[in-house]
Amino acid sequence: MLKNDVDGQIPLAFVEEMHLVVSLCVAVLPHVPKAELSSPHSGFGAIHGAVLALATKCLASGRWLADISPQTDVEMLSASVLAIGHGAETKFDIQKRQKERLMRKCIVEYLGTASEFTEPEITPLLSPIVTAPRQEERDPHFLATIPTVGDALEALTLVARELVSEQRVAEGEARTLVGTAEMLLLLLWRHVLYYAEGGVPAANTASAGNGGLKASTATAYALRFLAAPDPETFRAEVGARLAPVLGRLAGLELNGEWLRGSAAAAMAIAGNAPTAMKELFSDLPAFMGQRRGGQPAFGHDIIAQMKVTHASVEPKAEEPSKKEGRVVVELPVIPSMLNGGGNVHGGCAAFLIDLCSTLSLLLLDPSLTVSQSLNVVYHSPATLLTVSQSLNVVYHSPATLGETLRIVNTTLTVGSRALSARTEIWNATKHRLVASGVHIKMQPSPAKL
């Protein structure tokens, strides 16, 4: 699917399928061995190459879906109805633009995850070519297989231009663009810094020992890169192209609510969890604080105070062959959490254990929260596909108004039907354990009529 030409007469459903496949790749990418990723003949290596080739179209071609026309009866109906508030654009035009933006964001997230742009040492994926040819100047017989720094700069320019426009129209659309812009900025910063300092992903950089694996990963793409540029020339060219778009972005007025669920908020969460999962965790009010229909859920005021500070998947200390999900949540004690004696209510502690332990299970198995439309990007509308079977809580000490709670959640077991996690609620202000519990969940049986 990814290797097919996405230009031309294809239905939007095909774009949704590509989005689904790339989203799945983002989720499993951290668990793929580097040696397999660097080999085009391995199972995931071939997929990796196909996603990189798709990235050259998504990033560099501007409106790469502009020529897609309605194919199904539903799409033709949407194409015949004007979208209110969008001038001469039809509902199909709006849907096409939304799919394009989501696909671009997913591709950028894949590039960031594959290049390890949040790690101390980057694995370069963008070729050091700054000038991206216009679409009409591209040789139709040349198939680009590696995205370039110029492609990313062009994508950032496009996103910034759309973000300025959408800021006046729809906050939801703008938040998608904000997330894309942030990841593009980080991706560009790490690559520009690498090449500006004379970095060369060539075969002679591979070394033996512990550092050899990362070097050999970059070596797999060295034959497809052009010669490394002169650092001074490279910095000048990038600066000339980057300055206008940075000026446009600097003029935006974004409040804290817009940044919830964005890449910037995700980067504030420590740990090796996938970026998409961190984005979900960075906006708990939208994920867990609402019922279907957007109405406030039970404890929404408490959920609004919760902040995930760490999310990771690591081998279990007792059994390294098994994985363990770990999520740390912090929140201040607010008045609605107190009992008559002025301490955190026991029911509130159980509520926190219920919610927070579920986050660790979700981190280890993202399939536990997939919407009915298989929206694996984790964003709403999401449905938790498990229910609580038992919740055992032990209370150790009180916590009072204004003190900070630190909730540490670790998975115990994740089976085909039953799942369990352990939670400890610590008083971070007084450094003592407030409550602990074990939460057992299960996947419910189908309803019997």
Automatic annotation (TrEMBL):
Which keywords, in A-to-Z order, does the entry hold?
A: Hydrolase
Q: Which Gene3D superfamilies match?
A: Hotdog Thioesterase (3.10.129.10)
The record's listing under InterPro entries reads:
ACOT13, HotDog_dom_sf, Thioestr_dom
- Signal peptide start and end residues: none
Pfam families registered for this protein in UniProt? 4HBT
Q: Which residues form the Thioesterase domain?
A: 341-430
Report the superkingdom from the record.
Answer: Eukaryota
- Output the SUPFAM superfamilies linked to this UniProt entry: Thioesterase/thiol ester dehydrase-isomerase (SSF54637)
The family assignment reads: Belongs to the thioesterase PaaI family.
> This chain belongs to which protein, by name?
Thioesterase domain-containing protein
Native species of this protein?
A: Mycena chlorophos
Its lineage opens with:
Eukaryota, Fungi, Dikarya, Basidiomycota, Agaricomycotina
